[in-house]
């Protein structure tokens, strides 16, 4: 049937939106329907490039019809097709635009979800962009007072930071996660986030910073009375005593086994440097950081 030919549907749609001497107003309503039909037909035929273009036009049409929700949905479809085509820049642009359109509807959750979808796609091809999209996704939920809905995002972003060996960024995020958990009274998540931050510092063999983090977090009563605090205490005591076997034993404890997998993997590698008492005391005296090239 001619009416189901996506190329003809696209041409008809373009004609309805193009102004001329005989057409003073674009007919976005009928054009958008044609673009949507063409997009579905192209996608069914696995013509990803043309399907992507059709969804872009359908999204624009829904915007012109003051329907940002439908426009966002179409933009997500275009982003999914850009993924199939390996066009990482368009993946980022389309998911970001989709997020903006959901935000126009006053819907922070789907707006955040759109950014998260883009971030997950981009972790391999454009990891720095993925970091920014995860971060922006968290901010959308935090600003709307929906911190608990951001926990999976904190988890994914922490894992990405560790993968990229951005350990300082990981600790900052984990402490931010702890603060967010505190706001929604998620005590267990809060305590796990703080213990995780301490473990990352220990993985860096930055024992003084791990102790500072421990002391700061212990000002919070919920953490002070937690199993995670007791685990951190045992771990730091073992470091101060230079007891390698105890460090390895604590790293296998229940409190650590219930953390996220990426933190468990770091804990299993502890200690990552010399923890002899003499070296520990010398590092306190001279105040010089240990060489991170010594990490194993």
From TrEMBL:
<protein>
    <recommendedName>
        <fullName>Gamma-soluble NSF attachment protein</fullName>
    </recommendedName>
</protein>
<dbReference type="InterPro" id="IPR000744">
    <property type="entry name" value="NSF_attach"/>
</dbReference>
<dbReference type="GO" id="GO:0006886">
    <property type="term" value="P:intracellular protein transport"/>
</dbReference>
<dbReference type="GO" id="GO:0031201">
    <property type="term" value="C:SNARE complex"/>
</dbReference>
<dbReference type="GO" id="GO:0005483">
    <property type="term" value="F:soluble NSF attachment protein activity"/>
</dbReference>
<feature type="region of interest" description="Disordered">
    <location>
        <begin position="274"/>
        <end position="296"/>
    </location>
</feature>
<keyword id="KW-0472">Membrane</keyword>
<dbReference type="GO" id="GO:0005774">
    <property type="term" value="C:vacuolar membrane"/>
</dbReference>
<comment type="similarity">
    <text>Belongs to the SNAP family.</text>
</comment>
<keyword id="KW-0813">Transport</keyword>
<dbReference type="GO" id="GO:0016192">
    <property type="term" value="P:vesicle-mediated transport"/>
</dbReference>
<keyword id="KW-0931">ER-Golgi transport</keyword>
<dbReference type="GO" id="GO:0019905">
    <property type="term" value="F:syntaxin binding"/>
</dbReference>
<keyword id="KW-0653">Protein transport</keyword>
<dbReference type="Pfam" id="PF14938">
    <property type="entry name" value="SNAP"/>
</dbReference>
<dbReference type="InterPro" id="IPR011990">
    <property type="entry name" value="TPR-like_helical_dom_sf"/>
</dbReference>
